[in-house]
Design goal:
With 397 residues, this protein is α/β, with parallel strands linked by helices. The protein folds into three domains: 3-94, no CATH class; 120-205 and 371-396, no CATH class; 216-350, HUPs (Rossmann fold). Helices cover 69% and strands 7% of the residues. It has helices at residues 3-23, 28-51, 57-72, 77-101, 104-142, 151-172, 175-178, 182-205, 232-252, 272-282, 299-313, 329-338, 355-369, 371-396, and strands spanning 216-220, 224-225, 229-230, 257-261, 290-293, 320-325, 344-348. It starts with a helix and ends with a helix. The chain crosses the membrane at residues 6-22, 29-47, 53-71, 83-105, 111-138, 150-169, 175-199, 373-395.
Length: 397
């Protein structure tokens, strides 16, 4: 290994990083991430030049492919697959460049990844159980005991049941039927991969930064307290819209209109849009800057009916965004694309203790949108292992 080259590069990395940490105290994590990414790209490019190779084009191709499809249609699950493919190809590239260029820094990266992998294999499943069940008690202490708030508890108990099944099953079942125990495990692994894909692209989507040239900010409705007052969750959505409204007013002196979208549920005294309007008025937003869409009953209708209002108000064209809670904006964006509404979402913050439960709920909703594909794959998994069990029974056992 070229020790002098790598030590000099690492010293430069630490020197610049220290300067950034001192200069930008409020954005330490973002500056750390950005500089680390820039340093690695420059460092690996230097190795490529020295070796006269072009291996970096492989992960770069997948990353550019991800960028192309992401900025073309942001709310597509395929973008998650492309992003993870780019990350996997980059890891493969690090292995390749470490071997061919005798890179000490590359070896260090691989060492860190190996340690993380081993820790995940040894303790990840048990840590996940402890986290999920522990988080469920925190959620239940702060929220109502409705089914959507029990998802982390249900998942934690399901993992425990799966482990017990895999440990006890082979001891009490005939050998040929043990193969069938692989069915729930394989299906669980499949859904974990699908969830990881969903989570990856959902996190990326959080970094939307719309331009301050919007004509409308759609605020997606939620339930009301006592059927007439906005909930804390809904208030955060409105507050996020108001924050953008005021920022654009400062930047351009041309504020957007807030389009409150939400109909009246069977247990509500007034439409959600009306309660949202009253809340915005209390926050000092002028009445002429607030529009209402009071017919929708779900997120898809929020988008469809809001689009009709905006097209009626500005038939020549408009710019718009929407606000919701951060865990919800990706799925809401999927519904926007479904009605051919080309807008991005910005998210309001959610209590950290509630995020695991919230993302699980969103994942279930997104999975149900593609339930036919998942049912086919789960059916093929089941049929495959059932066939192996039959073969084992008749020809092996």
């Amino acid at each position: 290994m070229n020790l002098q080259r790598d030590l000099l590069a690492f010293a430069l990395y630490i020197l610049v990083l220290s300067g950034l940490m001192i200069r930008f105290k409020q954005k330490r994590f973002s500056n750390f991430s950005l500089w680390t990414a820039i340093f690695l790209v420059l460092y690996f490019c230097m190795l490529e030049i020295q070796n006269k190779t072009f291996y970096i084009l492989i992960p770069l191709f997948f990353f550019l492919l991800f960028c192309y499809f992401y900025f073309k249609e942001k709310c597509r699950l395929r973008n998650g697959w492309l992003l993870n493919l780019a990350l996997i190809s980059f890891m493969g590239y690090v292995v390749l460049i470490t071997i061919t260029a005798s890179s000490l820094i590359g070896a260090g990266i691989l060492g860190i990844l190996l340690v993380l992998f081993l820790v995940t294999i040894l303790f990840g499943l048990y840590a996940a159980i402890i986290f999920l069940i522990g988080n469920s008690f925190i959620v239940l202490r702060h929220e109502s005991r409705k089914l959507p708030n029990l998802l982390t508890l249900i998942l934690g108990l399901a993992i425990i049941a799966l482990i017990i099944l895999q440990v006890v099953g082979p001891k009490i079942l005939p050998s040929w039927s043990v193969i069938l125990l692989s069915i729930p495990t394989t299906i669980a692994i499949y859904f974990f991969v699908v969830f990881w894909n969903f989570l990856s692209i959902s996190i990326v989507y959080q970094f939307n930064q719309p331009k301050y040239n919007q004509d409308y900010v759609i605020v997606l409705g939620a339930g009301l307290i006592g059927g007439e007052k906005v909930t804390p969750l809904l208030a955060k959505r409105i507050d996020r819209a108001i924050q953008f409204y005021r920022k654009q007013s400062q930047e351009t002196l041309s504020p957007p209109q807030l389009l409150m979208s939400g109909g009246q549920g069977p247990d509500e005294k007034i439409p959600e849009a009306q309660a949202m309007r009253e809340y915005a008025l209390e926050q000092g937003i002028p009445a002429e800057d607030i529009l209402m869409e009071a017919q929708s009953t779900d997120t898809l209708e929020n988008m469809r009916f809001s689009k009709e209002i905006m097209e009626r108000e500005k038939p020549a064209g408009y710019h718009a965004i929407f606000t919701s809670n951060n865990y919800h904006i990706f799925r809401a964006g999927m519904y926007a694309e479904e009605v051919d509404l080309k807008i991005d979402g910005i998210g309001s913050k959610t209590a950290r203790y509630y995020l695991p439960n919230a993302f699980l709920r969103e994942f279930i909703a997104v999975a149900l949108m593609n339930k036919h594909i998942h049912l086919i794959i789960c059916g093929l998994i089941t049929l495959g292992f059932a066939a192996l069990a039959v073969i084992n029974y008749f020809f092996v056992g």
